Structure prediction request, 398 residues.
Amino acid sequence: MDKREFLKKLEKALKKLVPEERARYISYYDEIIMDLVDGGMTEHEACAKQGDMSRIVADIMSQVEPEKVEKQKPLDIVLLVTSLLIGVVCIIVLIALPDVITFSMMNDDGPTSVFVAGKVVEPIWLYIITAVVLITSTIIFVLRKKSKFALATGVIFLVCVITFVLVRIDDNRKNAESNTTETVDVYASSEVEEKTIEIIQLLSHNDYKTLRDEYAIEELKELLNDEYMMEAKNMISNDWGELCDIGTVYSAEVAQDNVLYTVVQANATYDNVSIAYTITFDDELKLAGIYFR
Amino acid sequence: MDAQLRKGLLEYCVLTALSFQDSYGYQIIKDVSEYIDISESTLYPILRRLESDDKVTSYNTEFNNRIRKYYSITSVGREALAGFQKDKEKLIKVLEFIGGGDIHG
Prediction:
């Protein structure tokens, strides 16, 4: 080890000292080594004479005044904790966020809501904020030579990115799978719209028998009995009035348990109430769920 | 020598070396190490402490195209050394007492 290497190592080992104090030790050892060299030693010998670096540092640190030791700035800690926390939250969200959520509320009171499926909106803002916070804090730590902190935030950022990419790949794979089902293009949107309007009309006229016999899947038939449905409707209002208008029908395709569902949203106005329908069709365009509020 | 004891004495050794003439790190080590173990890593913290206690001052001079830091004893430093002289008798008594201990049991 020559003088330059020795001093570099020393500087690194004395990181905990305030910069001025650290510089004093560096120039002290610089001078001592040069004096030893002038006394006839080689740089290597002079450095070797100083002994083990860890002992040198232990000697210095045991003698140094407490105010010469650099305190960990609370801001750094706050920045580190915040970065790590938001990073972990982002990773959890990325992993835990399902591409489809479903919830059935089939209670004894009747099928006020039978089946709902929907695509959860991706928290783009969370991703952006996480990326900005992690990149910024990493840069700050690098500039302030807090290499361990920088490493921590950097690694978390990398894990976030990798998770994001992996989840994306997984999503695409799933989508690709569901897209290969034959049913995707079979039902044109107009057919869905037509069926939706028919169902809403049948519901409005309390013709549940037709709904059961001609539209619903097996599992829904049981729930679509007159008694339950009347009860569910009465929960909103005892008298809806006549159906006046059905608004624009929006539809989306949702894959769940390898079955492709079409979820339709439509608003219907009656004399006395306005109802938002969410109607789900299965891949054979059978009625799989009705939800209204 | 016991580390604690040595630590207490080193400060006075350095002051003594500086009481004859201004000196620099390497020279102080050479002078002092004839009497007591001292290494580069123990000397500098002592110099720093003496400096912050105003017992020594330092100045830079150029030597062989590089900076050499010289240390100079102050009046406060000389007083400290004089104070130690006064304690010397007490210290010798203590040393004699310890030396007369029954080490064979």
Remarks:
- The longest helix of chain A spans residues 147-179.
- Strands of chain A lie at 100-103, 116-119, 243-246, 250-256, 259-270, 274-281, 287-292.
- Confidence is low (pLDDT under 50) at residues 100-119, 179-188 of chain A.
